Amino acid sequence: MARILVIDDHDTLREGMAVTLTRSGHVVTAARSGTDGVAAYKKTPFDLVVTDLKMDGMDGIAVTRTLKAHDAAAVVMVVTAFGTIETAVQAMQQGAYDFITKPFTPDVLRAKVDKGLELSATRRQVEKLSARTEALESDAARASGGLLVGDSEPMQRLVAQVRKAAATDATVLVRGESGTGKELVARMLHQYSPRKDGPFVVVHCAALAETLLESELFGHERGAFTGAVKRKLGRFELADGGTLFLDEIGEIPASVQTKLLRVLQEKEIQRVGGEETLKVDVRVVSATHRDLQAEVKAGRFREDLYYRLHIVPLMLPPLRERPEDIPMLARHFVTRHGTRVNKRVRGLEDSALRALTRYAWPGNVRELENVIEQSLVFAEGETLAATDLPAHLSQLPPRSDAGLPVPTGDRPLPDILEDLERQLISRAYEKAGGVKTETARLLGIKTSALYYKLEKYGFISKGDPPEDS
């Protein structure tokens, strides 16, 4: 059931439309003039407005312009005679979504209204999502002074790159290990861009099956497949005028890659099961923890799509490469979660900070946040101590200033050396951007030896060709 406002100075037509829409189950308010209709809308917004174009006093164009200025999400349909279609087009330029030509049947009116109500529901949904996003970003900004926390040189360099990239409309590919904060980078790109007042829409590509992913991205028409009982707008349409974040882009199947490439090239989509081509104005930001160049060489990712996504590459450093940021991050998470989980806790003791900085954080910033939240649950004092942390952190042996762990019976020297070698190779490989000859040069070893170690530690698949990426 929707709330619909009908504005028409012709009594018979106004009452006829009101009766038709009321019988369809809607709540209808009828207004005799444009002035009365605008006044009614300003008191209580409606899901849809149907207004005649030619009226004494305030006409349909003025009604549309006034309502759109009052409420940007207002959905207005104008009613026009056959000979004034050009004027109806002017109304659409002022913000009307569609027009209906007199005379029309009740079925045509109902179909047009249903289409308008679908658009209205979508706009309200986007408004709510944007409001929630802005609230979350505002909370984070108040707690940390920004979306990305860290004063280390790698983070300061990244923030500078993000600000420069945000000012453009270029497609961005964010790379980094799981838990490093790739979605935060995408949100920051949106927040500092000219599109900041538009929607920010997220698609978690790895969480959706192939058939569902295509429908989520591009939408579908009613009857397109079993279960498609009504038309659904895709994320590209929902993100129109804003930013679309495609998380874990490396997981999308080949069939969707082909369609995504076309959207990036042509800036238009087709819903699943539909024939209509729709233009979209969307800035795409994608993210992955995979080496997409290696995926291209293995034939699992389209090379042309990779270059479309890779216009501006951004690399997020893992937490182990910026341990100096751990104290700031830990305090940030205490502030963020403390009021909700444990209001008594105001900070961290030095013993807790030492324990946190001794750990390698394979789960990166996300793991650190989870640890702080878990510790807050059980803490009884006003500050977090090492004893409040999970056992695998509070019982870590001390390490030297160089960060080398002390060998134990459970973890002998050969295991530690292998772990250190793996970490050093990982850092060099990331710094070289996945270029293997450059990685070998940084490590001071032969390329053949590097390939053996990359296979050994799972950076590449066994049998990958020895060409450079």
Describe this structure in words.
The chain has helices at 11-23, 34-43, 60-70, 85-93, 106-144, 153-166, 182-191, 210-218, 235-238, 254-266, 292-297, 303-309, 326-341, 350-358, 364-378, 391-394, 413-431, 436-443, 447-456; strands at residues 3-7, 27-31, 48-52, 76-81, 98-102, 172-175, 200-204, 243-247, 268-269, 278-279, 283-288, 312-315, 347-348, 383-384. It has 469 residues and is of the alpha/beta class. The chain folds into 4 domains: 2-120, Rossmann fold (3-Layer(aba) Sandwich), CATH 3.40.50.2300; 168-315, P-loop containing nucleotide triphosphate hydrolases (Rossmann fold), CATH 3.40.50.300; 320-395, Helicase, Ruva Protein, domain 3 (Orthogonal Bundle); 413-457, Orthogonal Bundle (Arc Repressor Mutant, subunit A). The strands form 4 sheets. It has a 5-stranded parallel sheet with strand order 2-1-3-4-5, with helices on both faces. Strands 7-8-11-6-12 form a 5-stranded parallel sheet. It has a two-stranded antiparallel sheet with strand order 9-10. The longest helix is centred in the N-terminal third of the chain and has 39 residues, at 106-144. It starts with a strand and ends in a 13-residue tail after the last helix. The relative contact order is 0.07. The modification 4-aspartylphosphate is found at residue 52. It comes from Cystobacter fuscus (strain ATCC 25194 / DSM 2262 / NBRC 100088 / M29). This is Response regulator of zinc sigma-54-dependent two-component system. Residues 3-117 form the Response regulatory domain. Residues 148-377 form the Sigma-54 factor interaction domain.
